Structure of asparagine synthase (glutamine-hydrolyzing):
Amino acid sequence: MCGITGFYSTQQDFSEHDLREMTGAIRHRGPNAEGHFLDEICGLGHRRLSILDLSEGANQPFYSNNDRFVIVYNGEVYNYKEVANQYGITPHTTSDTEIILEAFVKDGIHCVNYFNGMFAFAVYDKHKKELWLCRDRLGIKPLFYYWDGSKLAFASELKSLLTLPIAKTLNKPAIAEFLHRGFIPAPYTIYQNIYKLSPGSWLKISGTVLEEQKYWKITENIGKEIISDERQAMERVEELLLSSVKYQLISDVPTGVFLSGGVDSSTVAALTARQLSHPINTFSIGFKESRHNEAPYAREVAEHLHTNHHEFIVSVQDAKDLVETMLDIYDEPYADSSAIPTMLVSQMASKYVGVVLTGEGGDELFHGYGMYQWADRLSQGWLKLLRKPLASLLAVGKEARYQKAAELLEYFSEDDISSHIFCKEQGYFSYPDLKKLVGEPWVNGKGFLSKSSLPPIVENRLLTASETQSLFDMVMYLPDDLLTKVDRASMQYGLEARVPLLDHRLVELALNISPELKNHGGTTKYILKQILYKYLPSELFNRPKQGFSIPLYDWLLTDLRYLIDTYLSDDVIERHGYVNKEIVSTMKKEFFAGKKYVYNRLWTLIILHRWLEKNT
């Protein structure tokens, strides 16, 4: 795991000083070494976090044996030994970097189809003067790039690009996207001309010609037939889980597991413990507010697995100290407040290990979210006919659950149902909300950058509503929220986070498992739980799903109230002029009067206006 930077320009628009500034801006991603390559057209920069082959011989930029190609690379290709055998590569190091580059020398960009891992890399052909950028299938590792039609720059984090002498023009439609989702979806960012390279994509620049292609599409892995046999599904999922965990334990530095006590992280911890002869390090975090404290559950799992367990109980002050940092490390508006505990547990784990395994992906692959059940409900014909009068009836109810149900029924159109369900489940602003808050031009069904919230078209078979909702999450929510959260939070402390449940082989299998085996008789993540219960008692998990969250509602009423007073004042709202001041004022009054469910909307507005105050 590392940080990469670079640029390409036939007009020498950038300098060695620019390259060093870019690379220095992400030194936290790689505290072990820094390196640069520069010729008259291309510059490449690298910050190294040493995980495999700790010697200087594996430092980057790394040059091919024939000295024609040079690479900077972030991530891990776990099956690099198999790739070396496949291409007949005799390595001189024990680093996967060398294998990736030599495979590229032999097979060009097509070699990525054989990689199993998380990666973002840049390869420069010194003879042809061509630069290739590539990102892994699921978007586990980040890659941003600037392109204005003549020159290109790229980096692992947005902050590197912001050091360059380029136009930093605000991408105003992205504000509506952020308020709707809590993040800005790829390929867009908060700035015009700066983009996220989409997951499963590569990009090539030669001269002033830019080409981009998808080498892996999630929908192309959805088959005509589904696996409905429970035993067959369990055997195949467990086999791939064990294989994935075994791959992702490959490391030359100590390894641990983030353990929340939930199904996903406990599965990863159990399968990790099975494959090691020594106790694994596990890390959990809890809150002094008991209703948000899952630490006791993690502790019970750790005791059953006989792990070397580390626990950190967070106070309001601990989190408050990190709020300002959290709001800065993501570089653009980003509203997932669970980034705060993720940063805290990453900070703790980095004192003991260099690599952690996490449980991201389980809910999306095996239908763990309540919104998947809502998707199935809203797809029923009778409910479509009665949704508007039913919404009006529920809206008069005083309980928050009735208010939420009413808003779920008031979706903008069938085309945007997946996005609507997501935003309401997260407590953000729907299309009707945004028409009032930011104005008609941005949200008339065409003003959104992403054009439509529908997942890509699936041709092989008709998906259920819950499968469609899950597909939406895998295309948008996973890469642009959850994986972004884990990457920035862990790399802030020089810690590599790996995600065994998102091995692309397991993803491709899960796409073709019957939804009846994912939500079975009301039991969510059914097939994954049956595997887990082979290793741990089911009684440990007989509780409602809670999630990795902070008591944000309580804190905004008390210790973090200053964020509302500072960033949602009339003066700040009027100075930037992106949202309706009266609506914000009404929301604040409702919140302080006890209308709990608006707190996440206020949080997104705080994030937005703090970002605007600091960056415009």
Remarks:
- The chain has 24 helices and 17 strands.
- Residues 465-491 form the longest helix (27 residues).
